[in-house]
Inverse folding.
């Protein structure tokens, strides 16, 4: 049976932080939303897919600007995350971006 989850990370830092770690070979990321709470300036978001050993497998986004007072959808289609793999996020400006991830484990 499929189980749906939402994971979030408020005030993304400039150091990489793991938001989702897959516990199933059938983890499907449905959406990644990034909101910029800073009303004055844009901030860049970077999202990486790390393998079970902790090495970066690929970047989902790399220094994508999120405008002030705006929301950006990084993943609008499905993205498969194998067991033990992670989605990690970091920002160019600490404390102004929030990340929300919706995913399902089958």
């Amino acid at each position: 049976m499929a189980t749906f989850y939402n994971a979030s990370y408020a005030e993304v830092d400039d150091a990489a932080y793991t938001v989702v770690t897959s516990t199933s070979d059938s983890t499907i990321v449905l959406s990644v939303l990034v909101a910029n709470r800073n009303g004055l300036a844009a901030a860049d978001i970077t999202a990486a897919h790390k393998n079970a050993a902790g090495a970066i497998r690929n970047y989902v986004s790399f220094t994508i600007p999120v405008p002030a007072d705006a929301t950006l959808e990084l993943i609008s289609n499905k993205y498969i995350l194998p067991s033990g793999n992670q989605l990690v996020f970091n920002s160019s400006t600490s404390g102004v971006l929030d990340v929300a991830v919706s995913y399902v484990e089958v």
Summary: The chain has one domain: 3-105. Residues 28 and 80 are 5 Å apart (CA to CA). The two ends are 6 Å apart (CA to CA). DSSP finds no helices and nine strands in the chain.
